Amino acid sequence: MKLGFVTAILPELSFDNVLNFARHEGFSTVEVMCWPLGKAERKYAGVTHIDVTSLSKTKAQNILGQCQDQGVSISALGYYPNMLDPDAETSRVAVAHFKKVIAAAPKLSLKNVNGFVGRDWTQTVDENWPRFLKIWKPIIQHAEDHGVMIGIENCPMSFTRDEWPGGKNLLTTPQIWRRAFNDIDSPNFGLNYDPSHFILQGMDPLSPLAEFKSKLFHLHAKDVKINHAALNEVGRFDFPLKWHQPRIPGYGDINWPQFMAELMRIGYDGPLCIEVEDDTFGKTLEGRMKALKVARNVLAPFFG
Prior knowledge:
Blueprint: E1 2-6, H1 15-24, E2 29-33, H2 57-70, E3 73-78, H3 88-104, E4 112-115, H4 125-145, E5 149-153, H5 174-183, E6 189-193, H6 196-200, E7 216-221, E8 223-226, H7 228-234, E9 244-247, H8 256-266, E10 271-274, H9 285-299
Parallel strand pairs: 1-2, 1-10, 2-3, 3-4, 4-5, 5-6, 6-7, 7-10
Antiparallel strand pairs: 8-9
């Protein structure tokens, strides 16, 4: 396994400075954000450390040279919009850019691209399903054509009023994963698994690892703390932001020694990238960099 982090947390830094920070702090890999240039409304979105729309052969070689100079690899390219947005134009734009991210990966000698499936949050899973297949079958075919593995993060994306009630990401549970991998039967379609999203849903984060080990293309390391006093007041059906808090690994409810032991038992040897959404370290660049260092200190002993 390689320990890294998601570059979305360092939007102020250039790509080269991100690599320099990673090298200096002992990280061996980074998941690089590839949003379209411009400002995104959603928190942690809109970060562009590699612009895939202008990625020439020369630029790709320069990026690979920067990685080699710093001794830090790219674990995956990341872009996390709602590709099943009920607004057809919003969906079309997201899908078109995601395909550009896929096409960029082999130029950088990469095989991994991560994102969300998306969802119409006003509809059920069954109601979303025909559109999911219509949009995602061509995406996965595009990935196969480019030799790229697509890792879907399992975040429910159901936190605020505009995401209520169904959330903006369809692939959140093992039951839905089985159905998706059956209906789009491709070795290039898998998971970017984040255990914190199982804690949020009241599920065991170790429970899917053995069954889906062949679909674990990439992993996020993020923790979450459930505020049970608040939960007792408002109940699990109220907005999750009222009763949970994203934390860095070691500061929430996940048992990381058990989690890492299970990863080792099933033979997972891919990247594990820290994702920081923990405001307890502050919202400044310095605070977010400190959060990465503290999370690294929690996880580093498992990497020998």
